[in-house]
Design a protein that fits this description.
Order of helices and strands: EHHHHEEEEHEEEHHEHHEEEHEHEE
Radius of gyration: 27 Å
Number of strands: 15
Strand content: 25-35%
Helix content: 25-40%
Shape: globular
């Protein structure tokens, strides 16, 4: 088992969203005759009961809605815009980044410090410290599955599996998710058996073309709660992708600004990388903002590239996380200092990482980009990546579960695509 844990850090609680109510002006009733007044007095008790019944009926939906996040209301200034002002303008990245940070869905503090995880029926383990997750393997007649108990993101991630009895394997995954109070399970299924999971309630969220030694991997998910299944920003994310896919693509990244340098990340860059990640991300789905973890994965489980400005400060960083058995790598941990955005720095790093992967025999590069980030999605599209779907409420990055867009690229030259893959070089 592989444990991912590090020091504790408190998260600020977010204020609840409330709804405003307005009071209608009272209408002045006309004067009534004496018989009419008597009839009115006799009817008053009935009217009060009727009003109470209506109030009770209205209160029920409000009670059911308690704890939900109200949809953001447009600003008054935006409502007052003229048709000419409301017309679509040229893509502007700054407002998208500014408006698209989500409101946290978490209520209360997570149980950090001492965490108990269920590994199997009658088998548990206690983890001390901040627990992000635990790698675990389950073997039984008819299947073997290697998984990640992702405590931080409240999900069960199947990393690899072999199955003859799919029903037994799926039942075990359901047990582990329920026992650990996880509300999402997802699997990279093979093209030969992905349809088996449909009959057990899994849904196809997207594809990772070329990610399984040149073949397609199928992203199958099972949702265990209505809240995790529902994406309130889905329409906005669809429109953003449609806009980006309508743009042209560049032949290559822009040149670096004068005095800026591209390099592999080194031990001396760790402080600068930590400062940048902590500046950009309020929360992150892995312990990337902790020195011990970042130092451990540097040049071992992932390859990091950085760009330094004229003064030698790290202003942009990204990594390629290796999946050697499948000859694919996830481009992740992308961050650029807010003052340095708009210079094409991330595209330079991503292009360099692609070339690094090609040299080591990798076939596929892919990423999961925040579905509401115009800049990141536009960068991958411009570099020739294919949009392959969307993972709903997949991980916690800015203090709430976020949808992640799948982007995939075949790294092989066109003349060798379709040929049998060779093992990757370490």
């Amino acid at each position: 088992m592989k444990l991912v844990a590090t020091q504790a850090r408190a998260r600020a609680a977010q204020p609840e969203t409330t709804e405003a109510h307005t009071t209608k002006p009272k209408a002045t009733a006309p004067k009534q005759s004496a018989p009419a007044k008597a009839a009115t007095r006799a009817a008053k008790p009935k009217a009060k009961a009727s009003t109470k019944a209506r109030a009770t009926t209205k209160a029920k939906p409000r009670a059911r809605a308690a704890g939900r996040i109200a949809a953001p209301r447009p600003a008054a200034k935006a409502e007052a815009q003229s048709p000419a002002q409301a017309a679509p303008a040229a893509p502007d990245r700054t407002p998208l980044r500014k408006d698209d940070l989500p409101k946290p869905l978490h209520t209360g503090k997570r149980l950090m410090g001492r965490v108990q995880l269920v590994l199997d029926e009658g088998q548990t383990t206690d983890v001390l410290g901040i627990c992000y997750g635990l790698e675990h393997e389950v073997s039984a007649p008819g299947y073997r599955v290697k998984l990640f108990l992702d405590y931080y993101n409240r999900r069960l991630k199947v990393m690899d599996y072999r199955a003859q009895d799919y029903g037994a394997m799926v039942a075990k995954l359901r047990f582990l998710a329920d026992a650990n109070k996880f509300d999402k399970v997802w699997i990279k299924a093979d093209e030969k058996d992905w349809q088996h999971f449909l009959r057990y309630g899994y849904v196809l969220e997207g594809l990772l073309k070329y990610a399984n030694r040149g073949r397609t991997a199928y992203m199958m998910s099972r949702f265990c709660s209505q809240q995790r299944l529902h994406s309130r920003d889905l329409m906005q994310e669809i429109l953003l992708i449609e806009e980006i896919l309508g743009r042209g693509r560049r032949e290559g990244p822009r040149p670096l600004p004068a005095g800026y340098t591209l390099d592999f990340a080194r031990e001396r860059d760790v402080d600068g990388m930590l400062g940048l990640y902590r500046r950009v991300f309020k929360t992150y789905p892995s312990p990337l903002t902790y020195r011990e973890y970042l130092t451990a994965v540097l040049h071992r489980d992932a390859l990091f590239r950085v760009i330094r400005n004229k003064s030698g400060q790290v202003v942009s960083v990204a990594s390629a996380e290796f999946d050697r058995p499948h000859l694919s790598a996830e481009l992740t941990d992308c961050a650029t200092h807010p003052d340095e955005r708009g210079k094409g720095l991330m595209s330079v790093i991503l292009h360099a990482l692609e070339n690094d992967l090609r040299k080591h025999g990798y076939i596929c590069a892919y990423t999961m980009a925040r579905a509401r980030s115009y800049g990141m999605n536009a960068a991958f599209h411009a570099l020739g990546y294919e949009f392959n779907g969307r993972m709903i409420n997949n991980c916690d990055i800015y203090g709430a579960f976020e949808d992640m867009n799948l982007w995939v690229k075949d790294l092989r030259p066109e003349r060798v695509r379709g040929k049998k893959a060779k093992p990757a070089r370490a």
